[in-house]
Amino acid sequence: MATRLERASEDLTAKARIRDAALRLFAEQGFEAATIRAIAAAAGVSSGLVRHHFGSKEALRDACDSFALERMIAIKEQAWVVGRLADPGFLASVYPSVLEYQRYVARSMVDGSSASAALFDQMVALTEQWAVAGRLPTTPADPRAFAAALVAMQSGLLMLHDHVSRALGADVLDAAGQIRLGNALVDLYSNPLLTAEQAAQARASYEQVRSRLVDGRADGDSGNDSGIGSDSDSDSGIEG
Q1: Cβ–Cβ under 8 Å, residues 158 and 105
Q2: Disordered: where is this region (predicted)?
Q3: Residue 19's closest CA among 65, 75, 73?
Q4: SS3 3
């Protein structure tokens, strides 16, 4: 039985079928290789109807970006904020969609287009909002840096999925590999890799580095003010 997050294809409007077909083909073939004609055929509509609803392939990709991000965020909110992760049937019901969106994001990131940069920026902004709003189980000192690092780690796994899949002996963009990788991520997220003492030491070390960099810039500025390295000094040195 289809859920609100995973509707049967016959329930979708023509515009939604086009978007979903484009999302699949962009993920499988890449944006450049996927054609309007192929997308229309996969959606069971004419090429003219695709252009009627979206205007251009670029606009269709924008719609796919927005939809994939919106659905991934909605699923995460249901799982972590609403608490549906405790429902044994929830993950099974949304898993096909999650894999599809991850394949799409992975291909988008690998393509390295301006659209992928915008998608990355949106994911960082949303994660930062969650951190600031206290919707994460931790309170980072620098929410923006925390969000950028977390999104980069997650996106990096998708971008490197060929290498990760080879290491695991299973495609991490298919169910078996994704389940194994997912369990590994649960271990990473639920078990600190640093003790509290090590974390304090690392922060103190970074603070020392920051202080030295600041002091170094100050010394450099005073050195320039004293005339060291100026044209007049260089000229006198050459002539003398």
Answers
A1: yes
A2: 211-240
A3: 65
A4: strand
Over the stretch 77-115, which tens digit does the pLDDT of each residue have? Answer: 887 767 777 787 887 788 788 888 888 888 888 877 777
Residue listed under structure tokens 């000094």: 233
Query: What backbone torsions phi and psi does residue 3 show, to the nearest 5 degrees?
Result: -95, 175
Distances in whole angstroms, Cα of residue 122 to Cα of each of 29, 65, 235:
23, 10, 53
**Closest Cα partner for 178 from 78, 101, 73, 82?**
101
Distance, CA of 99 to CA of 182 (rounded, Å): 12
Tokens 């389940």 -> residue: 179
N- to C-terminal Cα separation, the chain: 90
Q: Residue 3 forms beta bridges with which residues?
A: 6
Q: Determine the residue type at 53.
A: H
More reliable by pLDDT, 125 or 236:
125
Task: Tell me if residue 6 falls in helix, strand or coil.
Answer: strand
Query: pLDDT-derived band of residue 218, with 50, 70 and 90 as boundaries?
Result: low
> What are the φ and ψ backbone dihedral angles of 6, each rounded to 5 degrees?
-140, 80
Residue 150's CB is within 10 A of a number of other CB atoms, namely 19
Cα–Cα distance measured from residue 23 to residue 36, given in angstroms and rounded to the nearest whole number: 12
- C-alpha 133: how far from its chain's center? 20
CB 119 within 8 A of CB 108: yes
Which tokens belong to 168? 């695991």
The structure tokens listed for 237 are 């040195």
Tally Cβ neighbours within 10 Å of residue 164.
19
